[in-house]
Amino acid sequence: MKIVPRYSTERGHADHGWLKTFHTFSFAMYQDDAHDHFGCLRVINEDRVEAHTGFGTHPHREFEIFSYVVAGELEHRDSMGNVEILKRGDLQLTSAGTGIRHSEKAHGNSQVHFLQIWSIPSVPRLAPKYFTRHFSDAEKADRWATVVAPVEARDVGVLKDEREGKGPAPVQSPLYLHATLLSPGKALPSVFKKNVAPGGSKKYIHVVQTSGYNPKKASGAKVRVFDDQGAVQELHEGDGAYLLGEAGKEMKVENVGDKVAEVLLFDVDVE
């Protein structure tokens, strides 16, 4: 396995007062050709939006857009008529297709902390759709909860036409997203899936910055990513890494700190 770290201090970063945000990939004023996308994965923004503020109504098209709520409440409104208050554990997915307009704002009197993630759909000009799912902390405790999966992945419980329900949200991209709350001393394996394109199987890992906003050197939870061939990388909150491996081979994530680590793991461009 090849590991290419993406340290928190190297991410794009902006503090607008009402919004404190980190960009894993090129976004808005932050542009970096070396970190523009990873296969179909185009955006990972870790956002903190202050109370009574947010993103006003704006358009999107031809992206799969999902929000993973870490803390606080997120108010969503869109041109399809959806109005929803999303809380910790909620996963919202908007398949923008031919075009939608939406707003995302902090609801109530507290800041909302969430990850905004975009992927590129496999099929263009789809009809817009909206989905919500909920995954409790218990469902993610020391196990991988698959929260997003391709529409064809019925084996993991995808209900591709249901706005709400159990199982992963159905994404129109060759992409899985898994989440865990990993206890100190615990480790979880993950197998590299077969890739749809040459160049090896791909994963991306991100350690959520749960202990609080920190634009400096990452602290808080700490994990180690490794395989059985000696490849090892230590990551702190806010850090991520590109993982390149051989289909069928296993890697592991271990919590080597003294705090619970909230970890997101993407399988990218998979069959």
Automatic annotation (TrEMBL):
The keyword Metal-binding applies. Coiled coil: none annotated. Binds 1 Fe cation per subunit. Its cofactor is Fe cation. GO terms for molecular function: metal ion binding. Gene3D superfamilies: Jelly Rolls. It comes from the Eukaryota. Residues 11-118 form the Pirin N-terminal domain. Belongs to the pirin family. This is RmlC-like cupin. It comes from Punctularia strigosozonata (strain HHB-11173).
